[in-house]
Structure formats: C-alpha cells, structure tokens
Amino acid sequence: MAGKLLIIGFGPGSFEHITKRAREAIEESEVIIGYNTYVDLIRGLLTDQEIVRTGMTEEVSRAQEAVRQAEAGKKVAVISSGDAGVYGMAGLVYEVLMEKGWSRSGGVEVEIIPGISAINSSASLLGAPVMHDACTISLSDHLTPWELIARRVEAAAQADFVIALYNPRSGRRTRQIVETQRILLKYRSPETPVGIVKSAYRDRQHVVLTNLRDMLDHDIGMLTTVIIGNASTTVYDGLMITPRGYQRKYTLNADVQPLKPHQRLKEEAEPWALRQWDEPSGSDSDDEDWDWDEPGESDWDEEDAGVGASAAATAVSAERASERPGGGSVSVAEASAGAAVSAERAGERPGGGSVSVAEASAGGAVTAVSAGRAGERPGGGSVSVAEASAGGAATAVSAERAGERPGGGSVSVAEASAGAAATAVSAERASERPGGGSVSVAEASAGGAATAVRPERAGERPGGGSVSVAEASAGAAATAVSAGRASERLGGGSVSVAEASPLQLALQALQLVDRSRGIETAADGLPAGAGMFRQQSIFELAVSPGVAEKRFTAKQMITLADVVGEKGSMEYTPHHQLIVRVPTDNPDEITSRLRAEGFLLAPIGDVAQLKACDFCNGDKGDAIPYAEELQRKLGGLNVPKELRIGLNGCGMACYGAVQEDIGIVYRKQKFDLFLGGKTVGRNAHPGQPVAEGIEPEQLVETIERIVQRYISEGHPNERFHKFFKRVKELEGYRHQELPVFQIENAVCGD
C-alpha cells in the first residue's frame, strides 16, 4: 500500500477558519504529526489517529518521521498553523524527500493544503494594513543567520514595504526585535503605525495598535505577529489602514472613475508611473513594430535609426563640424528614458569652439546645463558632455578644459546612469594623441532605454579628426564603450570602437562605478558583499583521537588547526570530542586529511555515540576490542534523539558510564548493563542496573538489538530513558518505576 503525505495549514487556529479540505485531510489521516500546541488546537477534529507530537525547534525531526511513516505505507498528516508553505512544514518535508532521492512519479504522494497565514489573519483584525506591497520576515535565527535577516529588514525598510514580522521574540531570543526596531527607525518615522496581534482568532487573542517608537513597550512573543506600516499607512478610528497607492489614482466619491483603463500609466494622467511604449494607432497587437513619434525623427535615415527593445528610445542629433568655423569639434547629446536632446550649432557661438551639455532624466524632466564659452579656452577647442540619468539619480561628469590639451583637440564624454548606479567614463587627454585628434566615449544605461546616435563621417569635418560613437543599452544593462587612443591613428583620423557583448560591457561599466566608490567587485561583477546571499555550505563533524585514546599529538593539532582555518571553528564538548565546523564545498578533502592523521571522525546531531574511557591509558585494556566493535557497528547511526553509550573498563566506572543512556561496565571479565540514564536536567539519574555478568561474546549483539528497536519504535526526539519507560521492556530487561521527586518548574519554563 502506497503512503501519502498531507501537509496541512489549518489557519490561525479557530475551527471556523479551517478550510473544508483541511478538515477532510485530518479526518482521513492515520497519523498526525505536529508541534504540541498545534495538536492541542485541532484536538476536537481528532478521532483514533496515532499522534506524534514534539516540542519547539524540532521541525526537522517531524519532517523525517512523517516521510518514514509515509514510506511505510501510512497516510500521514503534518500540521502547521497558518499556511504550511509560509514558514511551515511544506518546505522541510520536501527537503527530506529530496535528500532521499524522491520523485513525484515513483515516490509517496504529497498534497499541500493551504491555510490562512498569520499576515492575513492579523491584518483582518487590525483593519487593512496590507493593501500595498508587503513582505514577511521571520526574526528567528534558528535556521537563518542573523546578519542576513538584518540585511533583509534594512532592504525592506528602505523600499518602504509594509512588513509582517513572524517569530519576533522568544524566551531566549530577545535582541532580534530590538535590533529590528533600530534598523527601521533609520528609515521610517517614529510615528509609523504598528499593529501587534497575539494569538489571532484563538482564545487568548490580543490586539494592540501602537507606533514604531513605542512598539517594544508591549508584549511580543512567539505567538505574536507584528505588522509595520509604510509611509502612507494611517490610523483611523482605531483601525490601521494602508491606501491602495501613494498617489490618488481614483476618486472615491465619483460613480464613474475619471481615468479610463486606456488612460492609466499615461504621463499626463499618472506622472509617477514608468513611461510606457507608444502603441501604433488602430493596432492592438504586441507583435507590431512600434511607431515612434519623437522630435527630430524626420532628420534620420532609416538605417541610422536605432530602436531599443525595452522601455524608451532616445534620438540624438550631432551637427556637422563643417558648420562650425574655427576648429573641429564634436558634439554628442545623449538622453535616457525617451527624452530627445538637440545639440546647438557651434556657428552660433563666436570664437569657434562650443560647449554643449544636455541632460535628460526619466520622468519627463529635462535639464539643460550650460558650460562656459570655448573662448575662455586657448586653442579654440571644444568640449561636449552629454549626461543622462534615470530613476532619479543624477550623474556628474567632469570634462577638463581643452586649453590643457595642445593642438586644439576635443573630448566628448557621454554618460548615463540607471536605477541608482552612476557610471563614470574617463576620457584620456588629447595631448597624448598627436595630430589633434579627438576621442568620444559614450556610455548609457537607462533601465531598458535604447539610444540611437547618428554617426558623422570624419571626412565631413575640416580642421581635425573626430569620432562619433553610437550607444545603446537595453533591459537595465549599462554599456561602457572604450575608445582607443587617437595617437595610434596618425593624421587625426577617426577612432573605431570595438564591440563587446552587452553582458560584458554592462559588467565593465558596473565595475567602473564600484571602483570609483571604493567598492571591490568580483570577476563575475557581483559586489564582494553579495556572497552572503548565496547559500554557504558548512561542514560539521565530530573529531576525536580514537575510541580509547584521549590524547592528541602535536602534529594532529597542527593539522586540525590548518583544516579549520580562520573561517572555521572548533568547539570543546564534554563527550570526548571536538565539534569542527568548516565552510567548504569539498568535505572529502577535509575528512581524508584528518583520517590520514589518525583521527576518529563521526557525524553530529541525533546519532549514536560510543563514549569509552581511557582504560587507564591502556593498562586495563581487556574491554577495548568490544568498545571498538561497538563503534564500528553503531557509531554514527541515526536515532530518534542523541544516544550515548558509555563503556568503562573497570568497576570504578570513573568515566561515568552508568550516567549515560546505555551504560556498560567491564567487571570480572564480564559486563554489567545499565539502561535509561537521564543525562540532563535537575532530576538527572543513573541508568537502571538491568543485568550483571553478560558474557563478552553476547555484549555487542545485545546492544545492537536494543539500539535497533529504539530506532524503529522510538518517536522523533524521544530520549532513550523515556522510550524505555514507554515500552516497559527491552530484550527481556524490564523498566522499573523509580521514586519520583517533586521539583518545582524553573522560572524560565525549561
């Protein structure tokens, strides 16, 4: 019989908010697996199903147990509050299945049943705070590094998202919510509305409406969802309301809205919106060519017109240098996001030289910048600078005076920036170019803007060579074009520009920007800090000198330090092991080096571990072979909860074997066995003595059978002493009830 996994989100917890399909799935399941509180919330829907319940932070073991039971042919329900796909169990179950090589066609069937997430249930109690762009961020750093969480909070705060905070605080995690408030106050007003909802739609529901400044004055815990408004969120009559938009694009008191669908996103109606393509009249096909209607369009030959494929087209017209008496000049105008710039004729400027600076920015604003007359520059040279910025970022371009360049040459630099990245292009001095030639470097990036530049022939420009560079960038790529030195071309001829792929040019441009800001970038163009958003592999293992050996050699320690390096860590444990954590994608290299030095390596977590004594440095070594055999057969086996098997080589038991889950003491050439030691807690106790005088040849077999039964019948995260108490008997050894001491619970709840 094929098993099935039902991953159920049952909503906030009240029965009326559980979907019909979620109820059906719970009823048809044979096994229910969930966190203790969640099982209690749906107890009214349970009948005779087997219940497997665990505590907080034990999500992985729940997922593993669910898969194991489903593979055994059972129909298993894994329950989550809210939606199982939002910080719930759905992803973890799939991760466990992926590790086991599961496939949809041949593996157990999986059904995800959606529920109402906390952001939605909490928002409904507060009013309508999530009416605009919003995000959810969990403040639990149990599975996610805090540094990454903090960066996400900062990014969401900068972008003015409505933010829903999940898992904001627990008994041990108290600083995260404080740090989050500090980050948010860097970008938002202290009066920003904040809603705090505890146990939404449950018996102890509690709703508080406050602000960002005072939010920490209120009770916030693991059952709380915190919703932080954006810049437009307001409070009205005790309700937290976020408007549909930052601009009033609708009229609430009108029966007929003033903006028809075809008027939306037009600049004259909604100036804040990204400028759209102009559709040809009478055509509703996306595949038709676009009919551009830009100033100066009739001046272009068909083969000279460049049309971009993303957001806007820029037409640039360069006037002929022959119309400019007194010297050769190059004027380049550049525009981004649909703005057209026209260069004025140098003939209108006495003195021969001209400076034309045109700047266009997205959003309909065009800025004209006037530079000083070329007459102020000896030699009659001219400088033309075109600058475009899109997205509100202004780009400053500094052009050196042509007077500093003997020969009267000219330099033209065009620069455009998109989003918020400004691209700097440096033009080399014409003095380095014999013959008075000139270099024009054009660069543009406009978030999808296409730029068309009409190149002029150098032969049409008397008095000096010139270069015109056509540039285009599409789809948010910034294109940097580098022109070679004119000195390589004697006689003042023109400079040709080699083409490169758009991706290469974009990365080069962004690297130039980063370097100008002192930011180092990697070879792939990513900022150095971008690596923290990549998944990093941390290899964890337990390292010891051996089963009975407790001494490290100097060479071993040197090798271990070299393997761990500066980025890894070593953690001492009281279990005769060091826990080593190393960032690496090649664990085989690490294990081979450590094994070559004689280390005993073992996995960590919920595995079986043999803890042997040092056998008085080998003087009492009769039991060492049995310890090594147990290590070979049981060491590292996955078990429901970490299992420690203590083995001491004499009746002194000075290494405390009797305190472990399974204790073995070698005495009078035979073994005594202790089961069910409680290793932690204020009521910790030694194991029960269940057998004396076990023959050595029977020991390993007996321990194997006990451990295998614990693996097959133990519940996830069920400690061995609880398992022994529940099953009552193991290999003929019966559990005995011990006197129970009444110990008052600790204040912290542990």
Automatic annotation (TrEMBL):
Swiss-Prot/TrEMBL GO biological process terms: methylation
Amino acid composition bias (Acidic residues), ranges on this chain: 284-305
EC numbers on record: 2.1.1.-
Taxonomic superkingdom: Bacteria
Keywords of the record: 4Fe-4S, Cobalamin biosynthesis, Iron, Iron-sulfur, Metal-binding, Methyltransferase, S-adenosyl-L-methionine, Transferase
Domain Nitrite/sulphite reductase 4Fe-4S: from-to ranges: 616-727
InterPro entries hit by this protein: 4pyrrol_Mease, 4pyrrol_Methylase_sf, 4pyrrole_Mease_sub1, 4pyrrole_Mease_sub2, Cbl_synth_CobJ/CibH_dom, NO2/SO3_Rdtase_4Fe4S_dom, NO2/SO3_Rdtase_4Fe4S_sf, NO2/SO3_Rdtase_FeS/sirohaem_BS
GO-annotated molecular function: methyltransferase activity
Region entry Disordered, spans: 268-362, 425-470
Compositional bias per record (Low complexity), positions renumbered to this chain: 306-319, 330-344, 439-453
Pathway assigned to this chain's UniProt record: Cofactor biosynthesis; adenosylcobalamin biosynthesis
Domain Tetrapyrrole methylase: 4-214
CDD domains: Precorrin_3B_C17_MT
Gene3D superfamilies (alphabetical): Cobalt-precorrin-4 Transmethylase, Domain 1, Methyltransferase, Cobalt-precorrin-4 Transmethylase, Domain 2, Sulfite Reductase Hemoprotein, domain 1
NCBIfam families: cobJ_cbiH
Protein name: Cobalt-precorrin-3B C(17)-methyltransferase
Classification of source organism: Bacteria, Bacillati, Bacillota, Bacilli, Bacillales
